[in-house]
Amino acid sequence: MSPGWSAGCVRARSLLSRRLGAGGARELAACSSLAEALHVLADGPYHQEVRPGQSLEDAERAVAATALWHLRVLAGWQPREGAELVRTLAGWFEVSNVVERTRARGRGRGALPRPYHLGALAVSWPRLATVETQDELRRALAASPWGDPGGRTALAVAVGMQLAWAVRVAVRVPQAQTWAAGGAALLVAREQFLGGRPLAEPAARRAAALLGADALEATFLSDFKDKLPGEARWALLGVEEPGELWRTETAWWARVDSDARRFLRSWEFGPDAVLGCVALLGVDARRVRTALELSARGGRPLEAFDVLA
């Protein structure tokens, strides 16, 4: 393994100290108010962006922005292959930037939301940030690695870009293919069987690349599950009805957490350690955001945090 990987993996492991941790997040969720939680959080690993007095929305965004900053630092320590791995996984932030602006334009009022600062992790954001209409956005996406989302609404853009991201992850980060396929299965299940919105092209084509064409032709959730490939079916285990799909996100994140820890158990220098670090930073940010939501509701009962996080 190259010296670049050796140094990059050592740096990656050092970033794991920038997490609040499961216990810390649970204590944060027990705070009796958002104000109390923010005072605690602003004195910890998320102090770079979190400030007392922020709204819940701003605080959740600050947590995500801190995680993104860590990814930018991490990418700068990696050899070219490692930096590209981090860039691929950080695609969520670019998707979020585009979708939030699309929603803001759809409402037709107020300033556009402040975007996440992607730096060298951007795929096409510098170009996408300049468009002024939804038609321009769709054309810009079609000409970018994200591809045509299949529509100009916020929902079409979100679904199209999320599936494009899943395909990018599966192709470029093979160790994360199971996560990508499972996440795509959850997205499609929610759209088709909970929302009653069959996928349009080219989103359906992207989903088929991960899930198989037969699964997309299913008319019932049970048939959909049966037709999924093994690397995607796991994400729907134990789910029998569309109304139970709310539980799947927590199970998906639990799988990511478990796999990431397994990647990090080996002290070999290479992409597995970097992937594990990126994933655990994401897991921690999600836990903290969930804890903030519960603290804003009074912090009790903690059983709700245990179920959601």
Question: What do these coordinates show?
Answer:
This protein has 309 residues and is mainly alpha-helical. It has one domain. It is built from 17 helices and no strands. It has helices spanning 3-15, 21-29, 34-41, 56-77, 80-89, 91-107, 125-128, 134-142, 154-172, 177-194, 203-211, 213-216, 221-227, 230-233, 248-265, 271-296, 302-308. The protein is globular. The model has no long low-confidence stretch (mean pLDDT 93).
The figure for the number of domains is 1
Main beta sheet strand tally, sense and closure: none
Number of strands: 0
Class by SSE composition? mainly alpha
Low-pLDDT parts are: none
Q: What separation lies between the terminal Cα atoms? A: 36 Å
What sequence of helices (H) and strands (E) makes up the elements?
HHHHHHHHHHHHHHHHH
What is the helix tally?
17
Please describe the structure with a list of short key phrases separated by commas or semicolons.
66% helix, mainly alpha, single chain, 309 residues, 17 helices
List the helices and strands and how they pair.
Layout: H1 3-15, H2 21-29, H3 34-41, H4 56-77, H5 80-89, H6 91-107, H7 125-128, H8 134-142, H9 154-172, H10 177-194, H11 203-211, H12 213-216, H13 221-227, H14 230-233, H15 248-265, H16 271-296, H17 302-308
